[in-house]
Amino acid sequence: QVQLVQSGAEVQRPGASVKVSCKASGYKFTDYYIHWVRQAPGQGLEWVGRINPNNGDTNYAQKFEGRVTMTGDSSIDTAYMDLNSLRSDDTALYYCARPDCSSSDCHTLEFWGQGTLVSVSS
Amino acid sequence: DIQLTQSPSSLSASVGDRVTITCRASQYIRTYLNWYQQKPPKAPKLLIYATDNLLSGVPSRFSGDRRGTDFTLTISSLQPEDFGTYYCQQSYSGPGTFGQGTKVEVK
């Protein structure tokens, strides 16, 4: 069965960087995009971006352009999201998710990781 | 980006009630509208995709519909386990934006 297992909680200072991992299993890693969605405490869902693990192509939400980098390592079926210049309002649960189909037009997120809490505090 | 506006933002209903949540898209998105259920502290769970298709295992009391750019999620007979926050999401074009959520409380 499809599983996405994320790395553990992180506490970072403002201005620092954080790297969250998402290990995939149960399917061919390079066949599907990995999306990243975040949720600030008590707030809704916000799409951060996505990566095509097959060729490294990425799309980022405009508000994160320049601060986020998504990568993938197909040798260990793991995707990464690196967010730098952290601010207190980056405190959130960060989820990785896999769409229900493999084309670039697929945005329906069928499978989700368990979430990684990133806390930014001085 | 396509905007989605959900209403109401929260509701409280009794077991057995019929509950309807609305999601209005800012532009035409055909039937590319999904619904997710989230129960803290868990990740969102896909319930309905492409307007009215229930994911396998989702109870038949859940249904989805569309009229133009207005989409609805209906729970025909609310059950205690249906508490949580429901989000719509458009998958018509990237980024796959979400509505702001509707929190459902079961009295």
Strand order of the largest sheet of chain B: 2-10-9-4-5-6
What is the beta-strand fraction of chain B?
Answer: over 45%
Helix fraction bin of chain B: under 10%
Count of helical stretches of chain B = 0
**pLDDT averaged residue by residue of chain A:** 97
Helix content of chain A: under 10%
Low-confidence stretches of chain B: none
Multimeric state: heterodimer
Cα separation of the termini of chain A: 40 Å
- Largest beta-sheet details of chain B: 6 strands, mixed
Itemize the secondary structure elements and their pairings.
The complex is a heterodimer of chains A (122) and B (107).
Chain A (H helix, E strand, L loop, with lengths): L2 E4 L3 E3 L5 E8 L8 E6 L6 E6 L6 E3 L7 E6 L4 E6 L8 E8 L9 E4 L3 E5 L2
Parallel strand pairs in A: 2-11
Antiparallel strand pairs in A: 1-3, 3-8, 4-5, 4-9, 5-6, 7-8, 9-10, 9-11
Chain B lengths: L3 E4 L2 E4 L5 E7 L7 E6 L6 E5 L3 E2 L7 E6 L2 E6 L8 E7 L11 E5 L1
Parallel strand pairs in B: 2-10
Antiparallel strand pairs in B: 1-3, 3-8, 4-5, 4-9, 5-6, 7-8, 9-10
Could you characterize the architecture of this molecule?
The complex is a heterodimer of chains A (122) and B (107). By secondary structure, chain A is mainly β. Chain A has no helices and eleven strands. In chain A, the strands form two sheets. In chain A, strands 2, 4, 5, 6, 9, 10 and 11 form a seven-stranded mixed beta sheet that branches. A four-stranded antiparallel beta sheet of chain A has the order 1-3-8-7, with no helix packed on it. In chain A, a hairpin with a 4-residue loop joins strand 7 and strand 8. Chain A is globular and about 40 Å long. Chain A starts with a strand and ends with a strand. In chain B, 0% of the residues lie in helices and 49% in strands. Chain B has no helices and ten strands. Chain B has a six-stranded mixed beta sheet with strand order 2-10-9-4-5-6, with no helix packed on it. A four-stranded antiparallel beta sheet of chain B has the order 1-3-8-7, with no helix packed on it. The model of chain B has no long low-confidence stretch (mean pLDDT 96). Classes of the chains: A mainly beta (122), B mainly beta (107). The A-B interface holds A 35, 37, 44-47, 49-50, 59, 61, 95, 97, 100, 106-110, 112-115 and B 32, 34, 36, 41-46, 49-50, 55, 87, 89-91, 94-101.
